[in-house]
Amino acid sequence: MLDYDKGGELEVSEFSGHTSSIEGNKYLNLKWIRPAEEIPGYIFVKYVVSEDLLGISLMEIDVVEKAIKGGLLKGQLEKSNWSSSIHITEEQKKLQHFVLRNDKELFKKMKYLPKLKLSKNSFEVISDNASKFK
Fold first, then answer.
1. DSSP string, 38-86
2. 84 near 77, Cβ under 8 Å?
3. Residue 67 φ/ψ, nearest 5 degrees
4. In a domain? residue 67
5. Does the residue 103 lie in any domain?
6. How do 10-12 and 84-88 pair as beta strands?
7. pLDDT digit string (tens) for 34-55?
8. What is the pLDDT of residues 66-115, one digit of tens each?
């Protein structure tokens, strides 16, 4: 993932992960690689794919925090002046049930990215440029 920070500097983030599905819903389970390798755990993202779009929705942390405080989900909340984190420690089956039951609250905002459309010439240019690096 590439992003510009407030000072205009390019920031690079890298994740490792896998996909999972629960009753037809698809999720990305992402783990930070860089810049912060020391961040434990996963980021959960719901996604949908169509012919022309990729939709992604980040999990609403406040819903998880409320569930942990209310005893509906096992986990730990860690807060400091500069950051906060939530570590869900619930067993897999109960976590899956919680996600299914609360899907609309957990993943409220789906953002869509259009598929990049390349012409046949685009592939030829990519191919030509790739041969220069052999």
1. T--S-EEEEEEE-SSEEEEEE--HHHHHHHHHTTSS-EEEEE-SS-EEE
2. yes
3. -65, -40
4. yes
5. yes
6. unpaired
7. 766 566 778 889 999 998 999 9
8. 999 999 999 998 877 766 788 899 999 999 999 999 999 999 999 999 98
Cβ(59)–Cβ(107) under 8 Å?
yes
Residue 104 belongs to a domain: yes
Q: Tell me, yes or no, if the pTM score tops 0.90.
A: no
Domain count, the chain: 1
Range of the domain at 10: 2-112
How would DSSP label each residue in 13-33? -EEEEEEEEETTEEEEEEEEE
Tens digit of each residue's pLDDT (9 = 90 or more) over 64-77? 999 999 999 999 98
Residue type, 118: L
For residue 21, tell me if it sits in a domain: yes
d(CA 120, CA 122): 5
Those residues whose C-beta lies under 8 Å from the C-beta of residue 47, and which sit 6 or more positions away, are 26, 27, 28, 54, 55, 56, 57
- Predicted confidence at residue 2, as pLDDT, reads 76
